[in-house]
Design goal:
- The structure holds two protein chains of two kinds.
- In chain A, 30% of the residues lie in helices and 40% in strands.
- By secondary structure, chain A is of the alpha+beta class.
- Chain A has one domain: Molybdopterin biosynthesis MoaE subunit (Aldehyde Oxidoreductase, domain 3, Alpha-Beta Complex), CATH 3.90.1170.
- In chain A, strands 3, 4, 6, 8, 9 and 10 form a six-stranded antiparallel sheet that branches. In chain A, strands 1-5-7-2 form a four-stranded mixed sheet, with helices on both faces.
- In chain A, a hairpin with an 8-residue loop joins β9 and β10.
- In chain B, β3 and β4 form a beta hairpin.
- At the A-B interface, β4, α2, α3 and β8 of A face α1 and α3 of B.
């Protein structure tokens, strides 16, 4: 199950979606908005995506995860739009009969999401500047001055 | 041929719009499109050099030819999660 949403993510709902009588283990990962990166203070984030392709890539990752591990259920929810510090940007819940596949697949899913799913974040800093994060820390792409 | 390129994140912001329309030779490759976009968005050649491209929502290599009518997107390094 895949969902992109502009609404706040409720972790309880995501857990509920993967609970099943066949499951003996449920693993939940939450990505949350961190205030400090190095010396910089983040005040908020903006997430943007290429929606049709992001949904396709997330569905491919779920299918690959199900092929690699014996899962019972899997749910991935990614937030879009404006997020404040502490809010949840991504939730991944995986259930399996025993714990190891759920832990391993959950870790693999968040790692792959960060590599291949076309979603981007812009950091709005407390000093009023902002940067798109494009995975080249030595050469940040300067965003608009706020 | 006419190619519409969808733009996202820093590239969208640099261009001031969410797609660019370009005229390229028939059978043009992603590599040719990459060079052309570098000219269209000066100052962002570093980002364009590091970006991926997607053709019909599949990541494409520079050698790949762009089919007529395909949906093409510039995918800057992603930062979801």
């Amino acid at each position: 199950m895949i969902r992109l949403t502009h609404d706040p993510i409720d972790p309880a709902t995501v857990i509920q979606a993967v609970c099943a009588s066949a499951a003996g283990a449920v693993v939940l990962f939450l990505g949350t908005v961190r205030e400090k990166t190095g010396r910089r203070i983040t005040s908020s984030l903006e997430y943007e995506c290429y929606a049709e392709m992001a949904e396709k890539k997330l569905a491919e990752l779920e299918a690959e995860g199900r092929a690699r591990w014996p899962l019972v259920e899997c749910m991935i929810v990614h937030r879009l739009g404006h997020l404040e510090v502490g809010q949840t940007s991504v939730a991944i819940a995986v259930s399996s009969a025993h714990r190891r596949p759920a832990f391993e697949c959950g870790q693999w899913l968040i790692d792959r999401i960060k590599e291949v799913v076309p979603i981007w974040k812009k950091e709005n800093y407390a000093d009023g500047t902002s940067d798109w994060v494009h995975a080249d820390p030595g050469n940040p792409i300067r965003g608009e001055e706020m | 041929m006419n190619v519409q390129v969808r733009l996202f994140a820093a590239a969208r912001q640099a261009a001031g719009r969410d797609r660019l329309e370009l005229e390229l030779p028939d059978g043009a490759t992603i590599g040719q499109l990459r060079r052309r976009l570098g000219e269209e968005l000066p100052g962002f050649s570093g980002l364009i050099a590091r970006a991926m491209f997607a053709v019909d929502m599949q990541y494409a290599l520079d050698a790949q030819q762009i089919p007529v009518g395909a949906e093409v997107a510039l995918i800057p390094p992603v930062s979801g999660g």
